[in-house]
Amino acid sequence: MRATQRLVLVTLALSVLTLLCSVPALCGELQEKNKALARRFYEQIWFSRNLTVVDDLVAPTYIVHDVGDRKGVSEPAEEQKRIADFFWQRGTMTGRIDYQIAEGDLVATRALWEFQPRTWWGRALRGRTPLPVINVARSAGNRHR
Question: Where are the domains of the chain?
């Protein structure tokens, strides 16, 4: 009897999940919300120098989900302000988001970042060269975590 009850419960759960995902508005709503949060993160902090929104967009302590050496590092949200401010003090930044891919609470964003250095040596070394960036963010509620 117990195995039969489990089978019925699993079948019922799968049926409900299938029904919900057959309605695109319900199935993709969370991913769209998370993509909007990631877009806002780039547009406000990195492309517009609005560092006051870091506290609204990033959990007090978050885990870096980027590709590369920093993946899995836990750090305070203040670190995002510090890193962005480091670049903003040395030049201007612009960019655009090319595309985003969302799955569950993860969003991968591919953006083209441009930095225009203010110093002569910065311009001589790097100039204004677009740099493709891939960032992965995990969302919880209204913040990256």
Answer: 24-144
pTM: 0.74
Instruction: Answer yes or no: are the C-beta atoms of 37 and 102 closer than 8 Å.
Output: no
CA distance 95 to 139: 22
Which pairs from 47-50 meet CB under 8 Å and 24+ separation? 47/93, 47/94, 47/95, 47/96, 49/84, 49/88, 49/93
pLDDT at 14: 47
Q: What is the pLDDT of residue 118?
A: 87
CA distance 63 to 56: 16
Helix pair angle (24-41, 2-21), 10° resolution: 60
Question: Count H helices, E strands: the chain?
Answer: 5, 6
Structure tokens that stand for 132 in this block: 């493709």
Spans of the chain, pLDDT less than 70? 1-27, 126-127, 144
CATH of 24-144, one of 3.30.2350.10, 1.10.8.60, 3.10.450.50, 3.40.630.30: 3.10.450.50
Question: In terms of DSSP bridges, do strands 106-117 and 131-140 run parallel, antiparallel, or are they unpaired?
Answer: antiparallel
Q: Mention every residue, 6+ apart, whose C-beta is less than 8 A from residue 91.
A: 115, 116, 117, 118, 119, 122
